[in-house]
Design goal:
One of its GO terms (molecular function) is ATP binding. By secondary structure, the protein is of the alpha+beta class. It is built from 21 helices and 17 strands.
Length: about 600
């Protein structure tokens, strides 16, 4: 990842490790700008306030590795992005000082929303705000459903389809019942209009045909005079004026004269006159037929005018022309079918509603049962993880509770004799509860957990969910706030284990966590000429000791702090090495 002009960072290039990357630095040095850069690459909101003072724009560029055929690769292909030879995608996000933002993916300009679609498949950012979200019932239900996987996803999908039908039928029944008078009045008007149209029985385009026929019948004398004159001009006048010659005879005479010559150029013109002669003959023949069809028929003219008057009555009321009238009738017929307020129609709707409600209740119970089974497993797994995070005596329970419907709930569903709120995600509320120690009451995590404990609960959840989570990159922004001592060491150990299956990026202030890094980045702040700037660099082993000593003692160099830092690094290396056989065994199992 490359950052330019973002916050206090003037320019920095960052290469993240495939395992655990840790970012540290002094308070205010700009550590969180690394996470902000990832947010921007993930389609997050671009704010002008993030642009560095004196810079025209902030630019973040990153390279995502997307396996061929993965959902992220499909999103990129649909956006027209061109991957590099190794299959990776270059993502660029620019934010100007006026707040305008641009996004590029694989060399193509794309909407910011495309970056969001890709990032959903590639990266998950967890900050301190996520701890607050974890206290919400909807988030807790989402965590449980992620853990349960297809066992809940499949019946939940069926539940949502049935619920949509049930809500639609219930809404229609209520509307028909409550608005029966209005609907009956509207139905009467539609029936009257449809009956009037049916009595006239107009045909598509009939008004245009009648208009043309009426014009012919009314102007028959003028039309006969014009057509006969044209016909005489082509074929010649009647016998009484035999001395006059028509165009066809003149063309025939011209052909005869050309053929009588020996000049090739003149003879070449004759075929063209032959074509003209054929065309004139065809037109003359059609004129004769037209003249014969021109009969003065006052009775027919009267019929046409009367029919036009009937159609005009309809076009004045319902549409501008006959085709519009027929379309009005079609739409009104459909609308009339939906206005049936008869007892039979209402009874059928009520029957269908009750049938769907019964089916929906059955599927809702199936979803609840699967959630309850998964909740027990999730509680045990998280409790086991907390044991390694210096909360050995704590227990996490995941309760699946029926969500009782309010008195005026519009989507109340009767499930096993209880009126429950049938939301889009089922009829359950999910609550994470923490038992801090044996004998303590089970309290919701937002009430029974301190900030540090909440951080560890969230980390434990992430570790438990990691094997079911397809997102390959996890980012933690100071989620270890409020944690210290032995618990901090355990947090580092868990993050290192999580990094076996995921790319993990951690912004932390804890040396115990930083000691477990596969790659340690530090953000340095420098003040020059009244302007503060920060850079990011990779630490080697000796520099890591210095940085950890600073984090431990708050001083650039102390012998005690350095010794403690070296001890932390040695302990972390020993832990990671001890885990290596387990890691290799898991890799072999995956290959098999």
């Amino acid at each position: 990842m490359r950052i330019q002009g973002l916050g206090v960072i003037d320019e920095a290039s960052i290469e993240l490790h495939r395992g655990l990357t840790v970012v540290t630095g002094e308070t205010g040095a700009g550590k969180t700008m690394v996470v902000t850069g990832l947010h921007l690459l993930s389609g997050g909101r671009g704010e002008a306030s993030r642009v560095r003072t004196g810079a025209e724009r902030a630019v973040v560029e990153g390279r995502f590795h997307t396996p061929a055929g993965s959902p992220a690769a499909e999103v990129a292909a649909n956006a027209g992005a061109d991957p590099d030879e190794d299959g990776s995608l270059i993502v660029v996000r620019t934010v100007n000082t006026d707040g305008r933002s641009r996004a590029h993916l694989g060399g193509r300009s794309v909407p910011v929303g495309v970056l969001s679609e890709i990032s959903e498949q590639l990266i998950a950012v967890h900050g301190q705000n996520d701890q607050l979200r974890l206290t919400r019932p909807a988030e807790q239900r989402g965590v449980l459903d992620r853990f349960a996987g297809e066992a809940v996803a499949e019946p939940l999908g069926r539940y949502r389809e049935l619920r949509e039908q049930w809500v639609s039928v219930s809404t229609e029944l209520i509307e028909r019942t409550e608005k029966s008078r209005e609907m009956a009045r509207e139905a009467d008007l539609l029936k009257h209009g449809l009956a009037e149209i049916e009595a006239v029985d107009p045909k598509p385009g009939e008004d245009e045909e009648l208009h043309a026929e009426a014009r012919r019948l009314a102007d028959v004398d003028q039309l006969r005079e014009a057509s006969q004159g044209a016909q005489y001009s082509l074929s010649g006048p009647p016998e009484v004026e035999a001395e006059a010659v028509g165009a066809m005879a003149l063309v025939a005479e011209a052909r005869r004269r050309l053929l009588a010559t020996e000049d090739p150029k003149l003879r070449e013109l004759e075929p063209r006159l032959a074509e003209a002669s054929v065309l004139l003959t065809d037109v003359a023949t059609e004129l004769v037929g037209y003249i014969e069809s021109l009969d003065a028929d006052p009775a027919r003219l009267e019929q046409v005018l009367a029919r036009q008057a009937e159609l005009k009555q309809l076009t004045r009321k319902y549409a501008a022309d006959v085709d519009g009238v027929l379309e009005w009738a079609r739409v009104s017929q459909e609308r009339l079918a939906g206005l049936d307020t008869s007892e039979e129609a209402l009874a059928e709707l009520a029957r269908r509603r009750d049938e769907l409600a019964g089916q929906l209740a059955e599927v809702a119970l199936e979803v609840s049962a699967e959630r309850a089974a998964a909740a027990e497993d999730l509680g045990k797994a998280v409790t086991e993880e907390l044991g390694g995070l210096a909360m050995a005596h704590a227990t996490v329970e995941v309760a699946v509770l029926p969500r009782i419907a309010e008195a005026d709930d519009s989507v109340a569903l009767l499930v096993k004799g209880e009126r429950l709120h049938a939301g889009r995600d089922g009829v359950d509320d999910v609550e994470l509860r923490l038992i801090a120690h044996p004998g303590a009451p089970a309290l919701p995590v937002n009430k029974g957990a301190s900030g540090g404990e909440l951080s560890r609960v969230m980390l434990a959840l992430e570790v438990v969910l990691s094997h079911a989570d397809p997102v390959p990159t996890l980012v933690f922004d100071e989620v270890d706030a409020g944690v210290g001592g032995r618990a901090a060491v355990e947090v580092g150990r868990r993050l290192a284990r999580l990094a076996r299956s995921h790319q993990v990026i951690v912004v932390t202030h804890l040396p115990q966590v930083a000691a477990y890094a596969d790659r340690h980045l530090v953000v340095n702040k420098v003040a020059e000429g009244g302007l503060t700037s920060s850079g990011v660099r990779v630490l080697d082993e000796s520099e890591r000791v210095v940085e950890l000593a600073r984090m431990l003692a708050g001083l650039d160099f102390t012998y005690t702090g350095r010794a403690h830092a070296e001890e932390l690094l040695d302990a972390a290396r020993t832990d990671k090495k001890a885990d290596e056989p387990v890691r290799k065994t898991r890799k072999k199992a995956v290959k098999r």
